[in-house]
Fold this protein.
Amino acid sequence: MYGRSGAELVRELTFDDHQIRRFNHDLFNKVLGEIQEHYYQVSKIMTLLQEENPSGQIMHVDGNYSGALIHHQSLLRNKRCLLSYLYNRAQRIQRLRWQLGAVLPEDVRDLLHPSEKEFLKSYSDILGSYMTTVDLDLTVDATPPKDPYIKIRVLQHIGEVLLGDQTTSLSRNSIHFMKRTEAEPLISQGLVEEFNG
Amino acid sequence: MESGNGSVDRWEDATTATGSGTGLHDWTEGSFDVGSSDVEILKRVWRNEKAAPDILPYEAHLIERVHEQILLMEDNTAEISKTVDDLMLSIYQMDISRTTFLLKAYLRTRLGKIEKFVMHIIRTPELWERLSEQEQGYAQRYVDALSKHMKNCVLDKLETAYCSMVKQAESSEGDDMILEPDLDTYVFCRSKGAVGSFQLDERGYESVDLMLDDLYILRYRPVQGLLAADRIELV
């Protein structure tokens, strides 16, 4: 059935809740291939119609006309599916940039299409230079502050970190009281968690 | 000093504008009007921006003032710590981080809208004018990056009749692939003064009496003008 692969591709986005999955090259290329096939069919029918009727006026709706229309519509549908797939993933990549910073962990990067990596890099540059020109780091202070300081528990051994004007050793499972602005990047990277005990 | 908007004395300006009156009178003089301090205005502007479906004009002067105030207050923290106790200092720092949050949230909300409707904004001069210079740069570069990505993966592999990013096909009427904000969505709005009878549609079938502090859920399109004229606020 025409358009089924495209629908499958888009449906893949709804499986998981905003997590990024491995780029589905096989299905993606299959849909691209279908588009080429549809295009081939459309042009073949169009040439046929031209030969039959050189004036280009469509006199009556026949099998050829309907066929061309169906191929044309299927092509459009597939194109939209591909672009939706890309766009939706691009948005997730953007969100990752906000959460994890400019450099993504290796295992996340492996899931991306080469062009997506390039997009991530450009996006990261764009956001970075915007934040430099307005002189504010927009990726911190994401929630309205209740208290300038929060208690955090360290989830992974981090080692010596410069906090304020002194270094602190953040070893696993230790609990610290630190400035929210300093803790937020660590929280979004999953290295520490807010401790409400 | 009448309100936080003047800048007779920069330091006084900074403290006044944050609107945290109690306790701060030790080093600031004069009264102020809570509703018109820069931070209060920013809070309103941010709420409007969050609730409106399309992008609103950038509040350049306000943002510049608030940003300067934050930097000034941060610089003054050390000095103040000598004269006040820890509790006061922590309240003071709290105040700074709240203001910072507002400022950043405002800019973030705008970037989100710009990303979402970037093609529509770029092709509409009226909306384009509402962006700050930095945001215009951001929008332009964002579109470039996104279209490059789309071209690499899909569009360059399609035939010329179908390879546009803004049109489904060559034969499409107009650009039918651009996302536009839905101006007919409903918004919560509060009137800031007596507007009187206000028409909600062109034919005049529906109208509403807007009095001071009235709260209504209305369609965004007809009340756009009132918002621009600062006669209502969105909540």
Remarks:
- Residues 191 and 232 of chain B are 4 Å apart (CA to CA).
- The first strand of chain B starts at residue 186 and ends at 191.
